[in-house]
């Protein structure tokens, strides 16, 4: 058995279910792999992959922009979710149903240049002034509690986790997907990334790993309830939140791939559209067209 480390982007959640299914169901074992799924360090999962400390991990196409721009040796080898399910959630009483409504409101930000430029672009498209948004630092592990406590009115979240959490709490909220306002924002998030040197020297092993992961996500697509229970078994910290995990899993199982046989594939047009936007905004200096992804391991 070959030992492989896989670095998560965050604490275990339903974005990761297919990995835990592949482990639990023996798909990794069948591929001759002993996979250790690890929590990320404080700073970033990507640095461990870039520096060759682990072959695979989870990252995001938007966050990859800056790394690829600097020549980082990483490649996205599978899209965990087919479309970008992130968007802006707010308390119902804040009356924010589109980007322009953020004017005069408190927005919880983690102060990432790409994040702020995306908010700015959406507002600009609607003729609204981003400078009139009150930016409040968002350092909470979930964005729902501070919204509930009126620390800020709105935040950028993934619907499949924080959005479902708000529903489970019975909160009255508004939510809109960012991709509905700027089509270039339908990028891939999250993705599985790999170290380029590893891919060159371990091509067959990498393919076996990704095919086993693909089987795990295909199982989760077809069996959301069983998959949710596998996630909870592998990540016991979630044990007291089964209803929430199951609701989140049902949503994401419908989002991983519209055609389960095509799970993990990238559409180059959508990949390139986001990086073209990033270059237009001056967020990256190099042309990143067709850079940083491959469909070779997930297959057709």
UniProtKB/TrEMBL annotation:
SsuA/THI5-like domain sequence ranges: 13-227
Entries under PANTHER family matching the protein: 4-AMINO-5-HYDROXYMETHYL-2-METHYLPYRIMIDINE PHOSPHATE SYNTHASE THI11-RELATED, THIAMINE BIOSYNTHESIS PROTEIN HI_0357-RELATED
UniProt-listed GO biological process terms: thiamine biosynthetic process
InterPro entries: NMT1/THI5 (IPR027939), SsuA/THI5 (IPR015168)
SUPFAM superfamilies assigned to the protein according to its UniProt record, in alphabetical order: Periplasmic binding protein-like II
Species of origin: Streptococcus parasanguinis FW213
Domain of life of the native organism: Bacteria
Protein name: ABC transporter substrate-binding protein
């Amino acid at each position: 058995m070959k030992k492989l480390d896989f670095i998560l982007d965050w604490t275990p959640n339903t974005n990761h279910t297919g990995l835990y299914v592949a482990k639990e169901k023996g798909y990794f074992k069948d591929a001759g792999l002993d996979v250790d799924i690890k929590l990320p360090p404080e700073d970033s999962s990507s640095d461990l992959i870039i520096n060759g400390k682990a072959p695979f991990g989870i990252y995001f196409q938007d966050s990859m922009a800056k790394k690829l721009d600097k020549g980082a040796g990483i490649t996205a080898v599978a899209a965990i979710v087919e479309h970008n399910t992130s968007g802006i959630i707010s308390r119902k009483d804040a009356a924010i149903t589109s980007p322009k409504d953020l004017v005069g409101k408190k927005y919880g930000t983690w102060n990432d240049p790409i994040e702020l430029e995306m908010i700015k672009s959406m507002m600009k498209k609607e003729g609204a002034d981003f400078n009139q948004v009150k930016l409040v630092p968002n350092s909470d592990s979930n964005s729902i509690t501070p919204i509930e406590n009126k620390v800020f009115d709105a935040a950028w979240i993934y619907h499949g986790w924080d959005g479902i959490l708000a529903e489970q709490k019975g909160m009255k909220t508004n939510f809109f997907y960012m991709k509905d306002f700027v089509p270039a924002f339908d990028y891939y998030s999250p993705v599985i990334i790999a170290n380029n040197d590893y891919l060159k020297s371990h091509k067959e092993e990498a393919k076996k790993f990704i095919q086993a992961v693909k089987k795990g996500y295909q199982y989760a697509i077809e069996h959301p309830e069983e998959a949710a229970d596998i996630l909870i078994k592998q990540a016991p910290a979630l044990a007291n939140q089964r209803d929430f995990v199951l609701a989140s899993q049902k949503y994401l199982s419908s989002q991983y791939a519209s055609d389960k046989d095509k799970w993990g594939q990238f559409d180059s047009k959508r990949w390139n559209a986001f990086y073209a936007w990033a270059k237009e905004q001056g967020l990256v200096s190099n042309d990143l067209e067709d850079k940083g992804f491959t469909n070779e391991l997930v297959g057709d």
